[in-house]
Write a structure and sequence with these properties.
With 346 residues, this protein is α+β, with helices and mostly antiparallel strands. The chain is globular. The chain starts with 9 loop residues before the first strand and ends in a 9-residue tail after the last helix.
Length: 346
């Protein structure tokens, strides 16, 4: 990014349409922005503002429920890591995140897991929805469909920006991508034990599509030892690339570090991120980049605290076990007792 740039760029999804006159320039811009900072605001996504406002209103209603109604769907009741967490029950790199949240995924039947099956099969199963707010279920499932469609359009644009066919990743997501939706409330600083809403981290999927409400707190690593604030802009999403695109591009693209600081005392912050990944049974290929891009490959990040694996299910399970130790102890103690085997990091 230019030395003076302290805000995220804005990209219009409509410019990637096949007949748009600025399509080539838009792909060049996407590649440059994603290589330099990995985050941008997205306009032209096509999701009506009424749908956005409706989901945020339902999110507020959920967090206003009495605690016993929220704990009815506590995540510890789900071996699939679905449901509600109180503040302080999720961890990033070993430190507590101070936010309450509820996690949802695609509504799927629980798999029968036989001896010798890969452990990631335990992640697949139904959601938990609160009986006190029946309107939430149809709104959440519709939202997952809507943002999945947006995420796939972004992924196809990334594919072309990297010199590939738009459907290059289709074989590893068309049989059912990994979809995770979080509805998150960050309490004000007077109600927390630290200013860590979420600690510094990278996202693990293809792309993240984030809806912010009206209070900021998201910060993106500027690569120079500082942070770029990403305040909410009505009608937009914040999009960032995840580690799967870093793996597939052999580090030409890098998933960037970001964090959330808690809001000021007396207030709170609402955030609804959606994480789009590959099918849990898939392995991530290395793309054959055009020579000009291949010459700029930087290699995949090697972090001893967060090893990356090309097996998608292994990566996702690793993250969930580490982030939610209470669920891991309740349902997957055998995975904590035995070191995860399978293959070596990418």
């Amino acid at each position: 990014m230019p030395e003076t740039a302290r805000t995220l760029p804005i990209i219009d999804l409509g410019r990637f349409a096949p007949d748009h006159p600025e399509r080539v320039q838009a792909l060049d811009e996407l590649r440059r922005v994603s290589r330099e900072i990995g985050f941008f605001y997205l306009t032209g996504h096509g999701i009506p503002q009424a749908e956005i406002d409706g989901l945020t209103a339902l999110a507020r209603r959920f967090f206003s429920l009495p605690e016993d109604k929220k704990l009815e769907i506590e995540m510890r009741k789900s071996p699939h890591f679905r449901g509600y967490n109180r503040a302080g029950f999720e961890y990033t790199r070993g430190s507590q995140d101070w936010r309450e949240q509820v996690d949802f995924g695609a509504e799927r039947e629980k798999l029968t897991v036989a001896t010798g099956d890969p452990p990631w099969k335990r992640l697949i199963g139904p959601n938990q929805f609160p009986s006190a707010l029946p309107e939430l279920r149809p709104a959440v499932l519709k939202w997952i469909d809507s943002v999945t469609a947006v995420g796939l359009k972004i992924l196809q644009a990334f594919s072309e920006a990297l010199g590939q066919k738009p459907d290059v990743f289709s074989p590893i997501y068309s049989n059912g991508p990994n979809q995770l939706l979080k509805i998150v409330r960050y309490p004000g600083r007077d109600q927390t034990e630290s200013d860590q809403g979420v600690g510094a981290h990278k996202d693990g999927g293809f792309v993240t599509v984030l809806l912010q409400d009206v209070v900021g707190g998201l910060q993106v690593d500027d690569g120079k030892g500082g942070w770029i604030d990403a305040p909410p802009i009505r009608g937009t999403f914040v999009v960032n690339i995840g580690e799967l695109l870093e793996l597939a591009s052999n580090g030409y693209l890098k998933a960037n570090i970001h964090r959330v600081v808690t809001p000021p005392a007396g207030g709170d912050r609402l955030s609804i991120p959606f994480f789009l990944g590959a099918n849990l049974a898939a392995s991530i290929p290395v793309l054959d980049l055009p020579p000009a891009l291949s010459a700029e490959v930087r290699g995949v990040t090697q972090d001893p605290l967060n090893p990356l694996f090309r097996e998608v299910g292994r990566n996702v399970l690793k993250s969930r076990l580490r982030s939610h130790p209470d669920v891991a102890r309740a349902h997957h103690a055998d995975l904590l007792e035995e070191p995860q085997r399978q293959s070596t990091p990418a």
